[in-house]
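Summary: Need help interpreting a holo structure output

Steps to reproduce:
1. Submit the protein chain below together with the SMILES for flavin-adenine dinucleotide.
2. Request a joint structure prediction with the ligand placed.
3. Inspect the structure token block that comes back.

Expected: a single structure record containing both the chain and the bound molecule.
Actual: see attached output.

Input attached:
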Amino acid sequence: MVIVGNGAAAAEAAMAARGAGYRGSIDLFADNPHPPYNPMLGTYFASGAIPRQMCFPFGGPEFYERYGVRAHLNTPVALLEPSERRFTTADGAEYTIGPASSPRAPTRPFRPCSVWSRRACAGCARSTMPCD
Ligand SMILES: Cc1cc2nc3c(=O)[nH]c(=O)nc-3n(C[C@H](O)[C@H](O)[C@H](O)COP(=O)(O)OP(=O)(O)OC[C@H]3O[C@@H](n4cnc5c(N)ncnc54)[C@H](O)[C@@H]3O)c2cc1C
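--- attached output ---
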């Protein structure tokens, strides 16, 4: 899994993935050197109402380790090419985004109507019906 940015959405995404049991790799690319930051708290810090560390509500740099996130800090994503399944960081490194898997159905000796993928809701519903 790749996460671009390290704001609240990014932090919540990593936490939700781990909370749901995702054990794969999480690579996070951010254009800054910080732990996940909430910009709305910056004004409170600027006015002296809160100390700087309170701008990082998800914790300090240990956040990344706690959630098994490989953080590529100071590494802005410069180019996103979804159709090419590719993105490029500002330092010129190119990354390929792996496609989601798609099931391959056997053709024989099954009758086509008896093989339905359960990845899509429609296939799941169809598989509960009798074969014609
Ligand atoms: C002054 C202020 C006050 C606010 N007050 C409130 C409020 O009272 N209530 C409320 O609900 N919301 C408020 N908000 C809005 C709230 O802070 C945002 O909606 C929320 O933080 C958005 O979170 P996010 O993770 O989606 O985006 P962001 O926090 O913007 O995170 C985006 C992240 O992506 C990184 N990034 C950007 N471009 C790249 C790139 N090319 N490569 C790598 N990384 C990149 C950024 O550095 C950042 O870490 C306020 C915002 C501000 C600025």
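--- end attachment ---

Reviewer comment: The mean pLDDT is 87. The chain has two domains: 2-96, 102-132.
Status: needs-info
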